[in-house]
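Exercise 7.
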Amino acid sequence: MRGKKTPEILAELERLMAPATAGDPITGLKWTRKTTAKVSRELERRGFEACPRTVARLLKSLEYALRVNHKKLSRGSATTRRVRNQQFRYLEQMRTTFADAGAPVISVDSKKKELIGCFKNPGATWTRVATPVKDHDFRSEADALAVPYGIFDTAANRGYIVVGTSHDTPAFAAGAIAHWWKKEGSLRYPHAQRLLILADNGGSNGSLCRAWKHQLQTRLCDPFALEVTVCHYPPGASKWNPVEHRLFSYVSNNWAGEPLASLETMLNFIRTTQTQTGLRVKAALNKTLYPTGVKPSPQEMKTLNLAPHQLLPKWNYTLAPRVANM
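Solution. The predicted structure, written as tokens, is:
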């Protein structure tokens, strides 16, 4: 690493690895598809010298972990594997295209629901006396059931988590993104006319969820005259979604071993989450009631300004503002 300081090469390495990184949102461990030799060559092209062995040491300091093979997968079709690889390549292409144009790219997902009250939280703390908690985690004894929805700005390294107290519905998910855009996104990107959303393939923001598309149109595209492109990770690939290992894992570490005694306690843990590489997080509480089972009618779906992409249109599509609402 001649001529370059370790913090500089670590920062460059993190930028290089971001598109090809997966991770565990609880433990914070990360892994990648790239080999150390390939990473070493890519760093050299960017003006940094680091041999494969040095790259391995640096990756370990960034909490990447080596993995061994596990015989757990049944035989899948070649078509399935090809489609997954196509989507991963397309995701990286779209991220690069938006980033190069200075357009915002966000990664979104719902975090595990949390019981609010004196319940055990996984992890340990350096305290003199252990905190006594309830011996059973009964939902009926919780003061509230918190539903965190995370928005991670990949370029700015900033997180925003909206904590709901109702249900994780498409209306809640789209509303959380709209809230982020109003409070933070539009201020950070005042001239942006389009937004890229990286999302999982199921849940409230699933690719097959018609209500998700409808809510994006009515809550985000039309009110803010914003063109929204959504690219979904293949089924079973949620750990590659940046929000999991670049936001949720650090929040989980921050409150590890600490009971979430109240909603304010939870919000405080989120807001005080930060890393040495610059991550900062904000949080907001949403007590709106979101009923389940709400579906847009066929007539409402026909009014969407929806354009599926040519490649894997079920997983990639763009919603543009409707002229009448601009």
